[in-house]
Amino acid sequence: MKKPVIVVLLSISLFAVQCKNQEGKNEIVPSKEIVLKNVSTDSLLDKPVIIKRSNLKFKDSTKYPVLTSGNTIYPLQVSDIDQDGVWDEIFLVANFAPNETKHLELKWTEASKLPEYTKRTSARFGKRETEDEPVEPATGETLTKNDMPAKQGFQKYQTDGPSWENDKVGFREYLDGRYSKDVFGKRIPDISPENVGINKDTAVEDNYHVMEDWGRDILAVGNSVGLGGFGLIVNETVHRLGALVTDTVSNVELTRFKIQEEGPVKSVLTFNYQDWCVGGNMYDVEETTTIWPGIYGFKNTVKISGLQGNEQLAVGLVNINNQNPLQEIKVNDDWVVLITHDHQTYEREWILGLALILPRDAYLGYMEAPKTGKLTDSFLAKLNIQNSKPISYYAMAGWELSQEERFADPEFFKQYVIDTAEQLSAEVEVEIN
Q: What Å distances lie between residue 404 and 118, 188, 217, 303, 356, CA to CA?
């Protein structure tokens, strides 16, 4: 009579153990370690590292990652790349010795308990709707081809459009229809004051062409597209994106701008130019501008839809106060650089090195912009561009009064640009445990 009871009890016990094992197999074991390996023989400074959310394991989606190594906390931010409200990747910058491997502990915490990281990047935009209204901070804007200062009779935007900076250098885009890119020289690592471009009455004011403790606007742009701005070459004819400051109508039907992300180690701005009319053709352009710490420059990504096959992207390197020859250097299989170095600031007061780092597989040489027309005063890098396929390049600026005074030496600046291109090619392997 007892044997059947024993069998039943054993069966129940085995079933319970089996269920427990099955439950154990289904249980998520959170990722606890990130291993980063510099596979190059170069030292890397503030090297960007991206860790995809899809490669991580974690139980609580409401918590956020923290990376540490001993007592060192690595500043990072999470990025929502597709703008769906859920972050997609971790972004950080780190220094590496040649072939160095870093073992970082990964922890998860509530948003309220995240470390306060030093702010090393920023994106800023302010606007007003009428001349009498105060400038208010904003994160985006939509403007039509008729929203030109020459037609409205006043400047709507703080610093003529959005600005972005890191601990080394700053930039701005003329969102008022010109779409050129300008340079703010920085003398200190701190982020520039929030009132750059507005006065004590919160009205738009050009107060950044005089030297302040933080720095100033240093680049003469004129009718160029500045540093890293772009146009289109169609059948050997150069066409400007947008218009000049004296124009009342732009050649872009609708422009949308957004500060997509601003954080301690990365800031991202997006620009969408809809129905850009060039020679009877209509193009749509998506532009993404990204800056991270430690680099005297920014990354720019451009995607154009509507290409017919007879176009080239023209990336600008302003040529107003430069009196020295442009240098073209093939750095490696990935990058070609164009460099100028001279007293390129206003009234040729200071030495400024400028450069473009361009994808070698798309590079088709360079040309000088026409002497007359809507886009002048520039060297133009010619890039092969495919329909609806993004292409990325970098714009660099080294001012002699920046934190790196050796930029006054043309050989030092040239080597800095070359080293930066090499660092962009260097790979950091990511292993998640």
A: 21, 10, 17, 33, 19
Please give the Cα distance from 412 to 406 (Å, whole number): 6
Residues 6+ apart with CB under 8 A from 63: 108, 109, 110
Sign of CA dihedral 326, 170, 145, 201: negative
Six token digits for residue 354: 């400028």
| Ordered structural domains, the chain, with CATH | 33-116 (2.60.40), 121-428 (2.70.98)
The full DSSP string for 82-150 is: T-SSS--EEEEEEEE-TT-EEEEEEEEE-GGG-------EEEE-EE-SSTTSPPEE-SEEEEETT--HH
In 3D space, the residue among 214, 224, 222 whose CA is nearest the CA of residue 190 turns out to be: 214
pTM equals: 0.93
Whether residue 8 is predicted with pLDDT greater than 80 in this model: the reply is no
Closest listed residue to residue 365, CA positions, set 394, 322, 336: 336
